[in-house]
Amino acid sequence: MNTEAIITMVLTQGIVIGFTAYFFYKVLTIKPKSEPDSFSDNNEVEERQ
Amino acid sequence: MSTNSQAWGSRVGLILAMAGNAVGLGNFLRFPVQAVQNGGGAFIIPYLICFLLMGIPLLYIEWSTGRFGGKFGNHSTPYILDSMVKGRVLKYIGVFGIFTNVAVAAYYCYIESWTMSYVYHSLAGTFEGMSQSGIAQFFNNYVDISQSSTGIPYEAVVFYILCLLLNTFILSKGLKGIEKVAKIGMPLLILFGVILAVRGLTLGTSGASELFPDANAWDGLNFLWTPQYESILDLKVWMAAAGQIFFTLSVGMGTIQCYAAYMNSKDDIALNAVSAGFMNEFVEVVLGSLIVIPIAAGYLGLDWVLENAGFGMAFQTMPYLFQQWGPVLAAFAGLFWFGLLFFAGITSSLAMGTPWMGFMKDEFNWGQNKGAWSFGLLILVMGLPTVLFFQEGVFDEYDYWAGTVSLVVFAMLETILFSWIFGMKKGWAEITSGADIKVPIIYKFIIKFITPPMLIIIFLGSLFKPLNNDWSGNVSSLFAGNGWTLDNGSIVKTVMHAGIKDKILATTDPVLIQQLQDQMMYLNFARFLLLALFIFISSLVYFAFLKRRREGRATL
User: Fold this and answer.
1) pTM
2) Domains of chain B from N-terminus onward
3) I need a surface site. Which of B57, B154, B217, B222 has the fewest CB within 10 A?
4) Tens of pLDDT along B387-424?
5) Domain span at residue A15?
6) Is residue A47 part of a domain?
7) Contact assignment for A8 to B226 by CB distance below 8 Å
8) Which of A:17-46 have CB within 8 Å of B?
9) Using alpha carbons only, how large is chain A's radius of gyration in Å?
10) b/e per residue, A9-29, with b = 16+ CB within 10 A?
11) What is the count of structural domains for chain A?
């Protein structure tokens, strides 16, 4: 691959991977809101924001 | 106050279901082809700009309108829009949000059934020893329903019905069933995609043969990613980028609103929307660009790819390329590739069933089973003509009107409704309510002043597409007073079958003329079915309105 293509590919894919990972990290680490919320699996979880 | 009788199990499940709705075959096939045809690496710049200016705003609009409608117990676009804006006619704009799903699911299930069938054929070793043309012919034989490759009579129809039964069965389990499929399907899709992408990245020149001595996977990646800056000034590239963003996110369908309608009004949509959107972008930009083009260029050379890049590569080319890896690896690669496409397909087709089910539940109190099986029946009635008359163009006609035009029309109208009629003050409050991230305030301006004009331009661009898709040339021509010449692919000319009529005028062969006239008849038949479906759903919305009025629930 030529340098220009490598830079474009790495930069673009890096940005997309970076944002995807960042948003998913936020989704997984932000504590759920108090009940009743939209989700049924956590109805029994006691620890809340 | 939410009146949801169903609920998502978890936040991750909801995001995966939303991402699964967006991720489809286009991520792996349409995106790289669009990039190749529109300036390679330069395409990515307008593409990302359109994602920021049109994709994210549309996601915010659809997520927030869905959650807003859900507060009033509405889970499909006719009455979601009705709860936003009072007006008898406006709910009929929402008909698009059910119509598009039924019409697209009708032919989309057929593509999905191909992937099921090709998984079977890959594992059974059907493609072993076949030449490239042999595999291309295999596909042509497959869609000719009178032929069978397995001995099962009407094999294509059987696989279609099997696929439809599977979809209907999962839908009958409600949101929980959809969420379970997304939680299994999306990680598997990414795993399969990563394995194939690594192969695409590392193939290099090892696939060169006597027939294609210059084949080199790096050439494919070079072409895909080397920026050709002059093409940024070409309007055609911008139209293609906007179109790709539009179709890849599955906006303008009514499915996002339906999924979001099952959310509680205090829960976040801002972070959820961008998480699902970026997951789709990851699958498209990262995985989608590293599979088909480099692998095809690695075995067949860049020239072949540039000449043949298209949707058909998935079924007519990839099985041949996998054969070059030996029978065992070919079976696994076939399983990964068609399995990946299957999961991409089924997570989308399941989403298409929910607006119909939500509408029938809200308005006529139909349960999950009745809703799901009636959807299956509707798809069977609408979809069988696409299977039986695939080669006559019924499938493509559905794709054009329901899978292309209808999406643009609905997205344009809902965006205008949200930002200009519902109003950005209320709209912004909906988007930011319960948000787990700070939404940049600039998006208030973008949603009101940038996104609607962009969608209007895309719609007008499709309506009056210029000859040979030469935007820059036709704009210059218009300003020079030489007029605007329409392409046969423009909506205006397509309505009149201009392309087929041109072919009839250009030939004197009576057999060919008869074939072209027959083709027009089949296309008109497809249009009649689509129109009948639209009228049928509009009638249901009208009956629902009468029922609501009798019950004192009608808003006007």
Assistant:
1) 0.92
2) 16-463+496-550 (1.20.1740)
3) B154
4) 999 989 999 999 999 988 999 999 999 999 999 999 99
5) 1-27
6) no
7) yes
8) 17, 19-20, 23-24, 26-28, 30, 32-33, 36-42
9) 19
10) beebbeebeebbeebbeebee
11) 1
